[in-house]
Amino acid sequence: MIVDEFSLKHPDNGHRRRSSRILPLDSSDPMFVQVERLFSKGWRHRQKPRPVIQGIFKILSSDESLEAYAIYKSQVQAFNLLSRYKKGANEQLCFHGTRRSCALGDDSDQLFLCNSAECSLCCIIRGSFDIARSGDANSFKRFGAGIYTTSCSSKADDYYSVGRSRQQDPQDLRVLLLNRVVVGKPHNRRHNATHMNQPPSGHHSVVGLPGVDLNFEETVVYHNDAIRPAYLVVYGPQSFAERPPLKTQTDHHPLSPPLINQKSLSRSTSKAHALLSALFTTPLAV
């Protein structure tokens, strides 16, 4: 059973590279436009220069993973229906910054997940999030052991890092995950609560509101099936604005013949003409 449009088996995703888990979106794709708008709107740190998006990829998952997410979402929907919470499952798109040890997404050829255990990015795309790894990169957990996301892309950017095998350069491309999150009925907090390992009874998430202990919003869920990665956003400093955007699968058809180098063709023709002239006394017509 194909669960939704993020399925590896969905017919709309059939033109992806074989074994690839990410699918480049064309800049004219409505989802590219929506994700780009969310990223731009969410860049709220005034002291951080606004970056340029170089590419957006749709993340594909197995039907088993998507089915578990769909079941959890329907359970939250049913619970909130009974409790008369009008927003139902309250699914939202939220950003998450993490460690990348490879070059996934840097260009149209970097479409395959690496096998490094320290590359949290590829681990998440391959098998989604795992609360057991909460705090691997940052020991401080404002609302306890959970999966942290935010609508503030510039805040998520603070948590992007590179693995030990790479050297971080401010001019390099960076990546963020944009995720589908079942927020359900949130418990709003303005103060830290590092002891938490689940939301209060009757709630499905914790939302940290800015004003006291936070400068920017964050949303925390405490169930692995409350979140699935949906898009990979690749971006860099303004200097990347002059570079061409990443090519999508539709920019170059795999069956298209290679372009012919006219200079090489001319040189080859001249050599052949000279060889034939040497073999035959009758001049060749040109």
UniProtKB/TrEMBL annotation:
Domain of life of the source: Eukaryota
GO molecular function: NAD+ poly-ADP-ribosyltransferase activity; NAD+-protein mono-ADP-ribosyltransferase activity
Any one annotated GO CC term: nucleus
Domain PARP catalytic: residue ranges: 74-225
PANTHER family to which the protein is assigned, alphabetical: POLY [ADP-RIBOSE] POLYMERASE
Protein name stated in the entry: PARP catalytic domain-containing protein
Lineage per the UniProt record: Eukaryota, Fungi, Dikarya, Basidiomycota, Agaricomycotina
